[in-house]
Design goal:
The chain is α/β, with parallel strands linked by helices. Helix content is about 30%, strand content about 15%. Helix 10 runs parallel beside helix 11 (about 355-375).
Length: about 500
């Protein structure tokens, strides 16, 4: 009890709202936004007060984590993972046969065009005999663990909409990313880090920026958190230098007591419960996150494996090492982005496909192969789904009657090639098939990107038809009204 003349230690703080607003101490929107559930009362069938509580899927699957490797710009399938000798036969000539395409591709083929054969040699690799370009000598050693999906179709040939569709299921902005859906369905295994972490290219952001890993209409707890390469790993995470650990701990304890007092008479304040948990998570991240991104303790063998001391591979090598470390500490979903917008550091090779594919593949081949190898030798590949993706494929031609000195390739939304590894993925398996030109899928073997999303969820133990969220008066899901599981690549 206070005697006359004494002041409450909380008096200077003013109202409870003012006290809370002054107490962030550097935990800005990026850090807290990834761990707070702003709309938990909105209609979740999953229910727990802490939205990141780990949950079991409704299918029995080995994979507990997912690493989604996204190549921004549109990887040329006929220069990487699809051997198309017919293109070399037609190099400099038009396609004369009926290939039954529609839309923009049909319009391009109706104008003068010339086929562009691949400049790279292909060889069959591994026991599976998979054809791989010479651009992937390191990945060739891991090929028997990979299952390929060919001729994937998206609904738009422009980078923005197609990037949205591959990463969120919709070509329009505002939908939750794949990682948000996964975290919504499964929670996270590490309560000291966000369950969904993004590591983008150190040179810049992808098309659509942070919308690629946004939570959309799902609660904010499920958005991706960007892990920065330099400085504080998570933006605004560092506390003020003038504040000690003990002082901050006391401050958070005071905030928690006030929040719990406010919560006590209220039985339906799940949002406030989530915010209490968020403060605790942010405090724990101040120690965990800096340690996570410090690679100084990695042995020389790991640095060599990932190419960390090679200027060409160091950037993406670091991203891949961090992805492995995130799996080790229980993070549910990690997204790696290689490529910046649609410029010279992307996979958007409209010109000089030979030189630019050599550059792009040279930056990622060794690190990706090292990630697969490292996960396997640590016993983690069995419980980690690894996905390689881009937003579209490329055309086998350019719109010109004569090839220039360094031809490139145009956009093609009907021939995306992806692969998966780890968990219950059947190594060496194939789903779909593209035609002899790599232009589109073979009749009867069409695959839509929603089928790929349904398969990713399935391999993580989630049925896409049951993973729903009520928004704007109807139940929404990642795969919208379609999506069939590609059972041929599941072991």
């Amino acid at each position: 009890m206070l005697t006359e003349g004494q002041r409450s230690p909380f008096e200077f703080l003013g109202t409870r709202r003012e006290f809370l607003s002054r107490s962030f101490n550097g935990f800005g929107a990026m850090a807290l936004g990834a761990v707070m559930a702003d709309e938990l009362s909105a209609a979740s069938d999953l229910g727990p007060a802490n939205p990141l509580t780990p949950r079991l899927g409704n299918l029995t699957r080995k994979a507990k984590h997912c690493i989604f490797i996204f190549m921004q710009g549109g990887v040329s399938q006929m220069d990487s993972f699809e051997y198309k000798p017919r293109l070399n036969e037609l190099h400099g000539k038009p396609i004369t046969s009926d290939v039954n395409v529609r839309g923009e591709l049909q319009g391009r083929l109706s104008h003068p065009h010339s086929c562009v054969g691949s400049s790279f040699s292909f060889r069959q690799q591994g026991e599976s005999g998979r054809w791989l370009s010479e651009l992937f000598p390191h990945l060739a050693g891991e090929v028997d663990d990979l299952a390929f999906i060919h001729g994937i179709e998206t609904d738009n040939q422009n980078h923005g909409p197609s990037t949205y569709q591959v990463t969120t299921g919709s070509q329009f902005p505002g939908s939750p990313s794949v990682g948000s859906w996964v975290q919504y369905g499964l929670g996270t295994l590490n309560q000291d880090m966000p369950g969904y972490v993004v590591i983008q290219d150190s040179r810049g952001s992808p098309v659509n920026g942070a919308a690629v890993w946004a939570n959309g209409y799902l609660p904010a707890a499920y958005q991706g958190t960007l892990l920065r390469e330099k400085g504080t790993p998570i933006l605004n995470l560092a506390r003020p230098h003038s504040l000690t650990d003990e002082e901050q701990r006391r401050e958070f304890d005071a905030i928690r007591r006030l929040n719990e007092r406010h919560l006590a008479p209220r039985t339906d304040a799940s949002e406030l419960e989530a915010r209490i948990s968020a403060y605790e998570l942010a405090f724990r991240m101040q120690t965990t996150a800096p340690e996570l991104v410090d690679l100084s303790e990695e042995p020389e063998s790991i640095r060599k494996l990932y190419g960390l001391d090679n200027g060409r591979t160091a950037g993406f090598g670091r991203q891949c090492v961090l992805a492995r470390r995130l799996v080790e500490c229980g993070v549910r979903y990690t997204m790696l982005v290689h490529g910046v917008q649609i410029g010279g550091d992307s996979w958007d090779h409209h010109g000089n496909v030979r030189g630019r594919m050599t550059k792009s593949c040279g930056e990622v081949d060794q690190p990706v192969a090292a990630l697969l190898h490292d996960l396997r030798q640590r016993g983690l590949l069995e419980e980690t789904l690894v996905v390689w993706a881009s937003e579209m494929g490329r055309t086998p031609f350019v719109n010109s009657s004569k090839l220039g000195k360094d031809p490139g390739r145009e956009h093609n939304s009907r021939a995306l090639c992806m692969w998966m590894a780890g968990g219950d993925v059947k190594g060496g398996a194939t789903a779909g098939e593209s035609d002899e030109y790599g232009l589109r899928s073979v009749e009867g073997k069409e695959i839509h990107i929603s089928d790929v999303h349904a398969t990713i969820l399935n391999l993580l133990g989630l049925e896409d038809t049951k993973l729903t969220y009520r928004h704007a008066g109807r139940l929404r899901k990642l795969t919208n009204i379609e999506g069939k599981v590609l059972s041929e690549i599941i072991g």
